[in-house]
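pasting for ref
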Amino acid sequence: MPVPAPAAALAARLPFFYGWVVVACACCASIARQGAAVATLSVFVVPMTTELGWSRAGISGAVSLGGVLGAVCAPLVGRLVDRRGAGAVLALSAVAVALAAVALAGTTSLLWFYLAFSVGRMCFAAPFDIGVTAAVAKWFVRRRALAMSIVSLALGIGLALMPVLAEHVIDGHGWRGGWLAIALVVIVVGALPNAVLMVARPEDLGLRPDGDGDPGPATGGAAASPRVVEVEFTVAQAMRTPTAWLLMAYTGVIFAVQAGISLHQAPHLVEQGLTPTAAALVVGSFSLAVALSGLGFGLVGRRCSARAGLFLCAASVAAGAWLMLDVRGAGAAYVAAVLFGTGIGGLHTVVPVAWADYFGRRSYGSLRGVTLPVQVLGQASGPLVAGLLHDASGSYQLSLTTFAFLAAAAAAIGLAARPPAAPG
C-alpha cells in the first residue's frame, strides 16, 4: 500500500516503533470523532428543543438515521480499510463531521438537522470505528490491548472535553456558536495527522507487529519478547463460528444501552433537578471514567480474558443505569455516571481487542465491516427508544429500567463468547 512521504521520512528517523505514531493518529481521530457523539449532542438537546419546539423523540431520530446510514456503508468501509488503509478514511471522516457541525450551526428546521447530523453520525458509526480499531489491530498483536487502551483514553478525553466545551460556548454564544466550536476542533485535530502520518500496516514500512524484529534501539527488547501466536480467519470462516454471532449480539445490545443513555443523560439529570451546568459536569465525569477505564483494561491486558472483560463492562453499565434511576442530587449522579462510564470505557478497549484476538489481523476491517452494522443499529435504536418512552411516560424511568435489564443480558452473552477453534 502507498506510504505518505512525510510518514516514510519520519519512520526513517524515529528511535522507536512507528506503531506508536499510528496510535497517536488514531487518538486524534478518536477525539475528533466525538464531535458527533451522542454525549456531545446531549448538551444541545435542551436549548435546541426549547428554541425550535422539537420533541425529544424527534431530535433522537437523527441519531437513529445516522446509525442506519453507518450500518449500510460499513461493509464497504471495512473492505476499503483492508485494501487502502485507514488514513484517508479517517481524514475524510473528520472533514465530513466538521462540515456537518457547521451545517448544524445554521439549522432552522428538523429536516435540516436530520440531513446534517445524520452525515456526522454516519461517520461516527462506521468509518471512524472501523478505521481507528483496524489501524491499531494491524500494527499490534502482543501489545494490542495496551495500544487500544491508549486510543480509548483519547476517546474518553475527547468525550469529556467536547460536551464541556460545547456547554461553555453555548453559555456565552448560544447553541449555534457551540456547533461552530465543535467544527473547529474536529477539523484541526482529526484531519491532518491521519492524512499525512497514518500508515496501513507495519509491513508497508518493512516492520513487524509490535516492533518485533525491528532493529531500532527501542525495539531490541521487543524482539526478544515472546510472540503471541496469531490466528487468521477469513470473513467466511469467522461467520461460521458461534463466537462471531455472540459478539455481534453482545455489541448490538450493549451499544443500544450506551447510546440510549448517553444522549438522554443530561436531559434526565436536568429533569431530576440539576442545573444544565451541573449536568454537563456530570457528563464530563462520565467521560473521564470512560477514559480511565479504557486505559485500565489495557494495562491489565492479557491477564484478563476477553470473556471476563466483556462481562465486567456490561455489568458496570447495568449498575450505572440502575443507580441513575433514582438520582436525587449531584453526588448520586456522579456515582451513577462513573459506573456507567467505567463500563463504556472498557468496551472501547475490550470489544475491538476481542475481535482481533479471536479472528486475526488480515481480514479485520472486512470482518468488522460485515459485523459492525449490528452494533450500529443498536446504537441507532437506543436513543430513539429512550426518546419515545420519555415522550409517552413523561420521564426516563422506564427507559433506564429497560436499559439496565438489557445490559445485564449482555453480560451473560459476553461470558458465553469463548475463543473460536482455529480454522482447519
